[in-house]
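Hello forum,

I keep getting stuck at the same step: I have a sequence, I want structure tokens, and every attempt I make locally crashes halfway through. Rather than fight my setup again tonight, could one of you with a working pipeline run this one for me? It's a single chain of 130 residues.
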Amino acid sequence: MPVHELRVALTVDEWEKAVAFYRDGLGLDPGELWTDGGKGQMFLAGRATLEIFDPDYAASVDQLEVGERVSGQIRFAFEVPDVHAALERALEYGAELVHEPVLTPWNDLNARVRSPEGLQITLYQVQGES
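Reply #2:
Ran it on my machine without issues. Output:
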């Protein structure tokens, strides 16, 4: 049975701040808004993939992007058209800079931030054929 969609649900203490960060800071498109029994906001984020890393591979990605092991069990990665503009906007909406953009061996320009609720997020821009 094929899977048709991947969804990730975040539970946050500061809902408005998180919604502003993902909507305005990262530019995700708002989808449905739920208000029965609390508040929930869906965001549309394009195509989704799930990556499963062992601890050694996670450490090697952290080393390439940040210079040391820093991410936890879950890290988001968003492909953006302009990593510098996306980084500036994310910081404006409450992200904390973990590392400036670096060119990876797979020829993506990757920047790392920590979201207001503490998630590690890679913003990456594909640079084309290497």
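The chain has a mean pLDDT of 93. If your local run keeps crashing, start a new thread with the error log.
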